[in-house]
């Protein structure tokens, strides 16, 4: 079996490795236009903030390690043409310019995503930085020690982390977003309010509900003009979001309107023998029971493994995702899974939610810490569709617990009565996950 894997970030790497594990005799050609693989881009802000032990450890594989596993790596090589029905590829060595062509039995599309970069005046200034890949990370790491100020555009996870790390390293930071609160697509307003207060306490200027219209270079840096004002700094950093990098395959496979490639539960596209995974593909989103576009490394890794397991025949079906995620800003740990009530409504679900705040362990302990916990459920069925947790205590695994509950279609009543241990070093007699579920069940019963 001869397989082409196009792209080698998370989905591509795990696809190639799993195909080789399942089919040791397979010929696997991986095409990657960059010279690195498996870059953990979620660590860019941490590296800029000097919280990374070594940038070399931001990669869990290398072209050399994959080659040693029997995978043929075509680095610095771009696939320029693809006839998916015929399984025919044309690819170019970006250093020499030489083009070649090859035919395959199977093709795996793991081309990932591209950063959203609107065509605004001045956006291509060398004082406006991207924050997507290894080259972007190096450029930012080189320039940030010498700056005094920065404008971060986009208050999702990426922009939020960049703004936080720059501010704790004594940079004057302005955080701009088109929505009216930080992390608006990631959490509810009661959690956003906590983070907004933290930003303001650390001197970050919040420019929310503002759309960027243009960039202008100044004598000392860059000016960012929005529909409500202008802001100046040494540099600007884009963290607006991502779109599927799938233009090459348009018209050949079924896609969502944004270009995300649709697959079945075995990761196969509408063209037999062609698979897709990661940021280039859709995910099955368990809270809604529908396919959606949610670019996360965790989704990419699991989908890549599934490609390898199903490359020859349907073997293991995709279990779907809850889009579980987390972030830590100013020592505040936030972890979430599924939908908020507001997001559920936009997805066409009738939902409700409840939020509680309590100490994570008994008050007789010498110290304890408050935990804010929220749970969202579908009205009528009482099926859990989301949760969020916020604390200076490590609450990250609580989101994983509720992620399992969502995947298994548990109700708020079932979660309320699920067995969780009690030990005063760790939690209350009623764990805060149980506690918020009990509050949800009580509220649902009142309505």
From TrEMBL:
Top EC class for this record:
oxidoreductase
Required co-factor(s) are: FAD
Sorted alphabetically, the keyword list is: FAD, Flavoprotein, Oxidation, Oxidoreductase, Redox-active center
Q: Which residues form a coiled coil?
A: none
An MF annotation (GO) of this entry: oxidoreductase activity
Q: What is its EC number?
A: 1.6.3.4
Per UniProt, residues of the FAD/NAD(P)-binding domain are: 1-304
Q: Identify one Pfam family in the record.
A: Pyr_redox_dim
Domain (Pyridine nucleotide-disulphide oxidoreductase dimerisation): residue spans on this chain: 330-427
Question: What does the similarity note say?
Answer: Belongs to the class-III pyridine nucleotide-disulfide oxidoreductase family.
- Protein name per Swiss-Prot or TrEMBL: Or a related oxidoreductase (FadH2)
Species assigned in the record: Fructobacillus fructosus
């Amino acid at each position: 079996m001869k397989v082409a894997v196009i792209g080698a970030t998370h989905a591509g790497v795990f696809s190639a490795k799993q195909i080789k594990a399942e089919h040791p005799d397979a010929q696997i050609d991986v095409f990657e236009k960059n010279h690195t693989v498996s870059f953990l881009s979620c660590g860019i802000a941490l590296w800029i903030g000097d919280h990374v032990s070594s940038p070399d450890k931001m990669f869990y594989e290398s072209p050399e390690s994959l080659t040693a596993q029997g995978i043929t790596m075509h680095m610095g090589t771009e696939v320029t043409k693809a006839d998916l029905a015929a399984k025919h590829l044309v690819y170019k060595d970006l250093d020499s310019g030489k083009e070649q062509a090859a035919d395959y039995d199977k093709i795996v599309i793991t081309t990932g995503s591209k950063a959203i970069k609107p065509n605004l005046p001045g956006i291509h200034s060398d004082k406006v930085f991207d924050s997507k890949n290894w080259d972007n990370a190096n450029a930012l790491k080189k320039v940030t020690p010498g700056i005094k100020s920065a404008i971060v555009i986009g208050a999702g996870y990426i922009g939020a982390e960049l703004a936080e790390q720059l501010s704790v390293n004594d940079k004057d930071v302005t955080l701009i977003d088109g929505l009216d609160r930080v992390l608006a697509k990631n959490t509810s307003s009661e959690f956003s309010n906590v983070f907004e207060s933290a930003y303001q306490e650390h001197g970050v200027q919040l420019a929310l509900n503002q759309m960027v219209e243009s960039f202008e270079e100044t004598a000392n840096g860059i000016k960012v003009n929005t529909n409500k004002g202008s802001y100046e700094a040494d540099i600007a950093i884009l963290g607006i979001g991502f779109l599927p990098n799938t233009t090459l395959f348009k018209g050949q496979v079924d896609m969502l309107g944004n270009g995300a490639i649709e697959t079945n539960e075995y990761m196969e596209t509408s063209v037999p023998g062609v698979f897709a995974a990661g940021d280039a593909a859709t995910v099955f989103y368990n809270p809604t029971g529908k396919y959606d576009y949610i670019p996360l490394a965790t989704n990419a890794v699991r989908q890549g493994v599934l490609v390898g397991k199903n490359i020859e025949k349907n073997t293991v079906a995709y279990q779907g995702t809850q889009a579980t995620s987390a972030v830590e800003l100013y020592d505040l740990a936030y972890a979430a899974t599924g939908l908020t009530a507001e997001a559920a409504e936009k997805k066409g679900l009738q939902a409700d939610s409840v939020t509680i705040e309590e100490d994570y362990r008994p008050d007789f302990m010498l110290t304890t810490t408050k935990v804010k916990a929220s749970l969202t459920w579908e009205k009528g069925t009482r099926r859990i569709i989301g949760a969020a947790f916020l604390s200076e205590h490590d609450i990250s695994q609580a989101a994983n617990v509720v992620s399992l509950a969502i995947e298994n279609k548990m109700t708020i009543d079932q979660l309320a009565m699920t067995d969780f241990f009690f030990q005063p070093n760790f939690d209350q007699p009623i764990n805060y996950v149980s506690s918020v579920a009990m509050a949800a069940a009580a509220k649902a019963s009142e309505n």
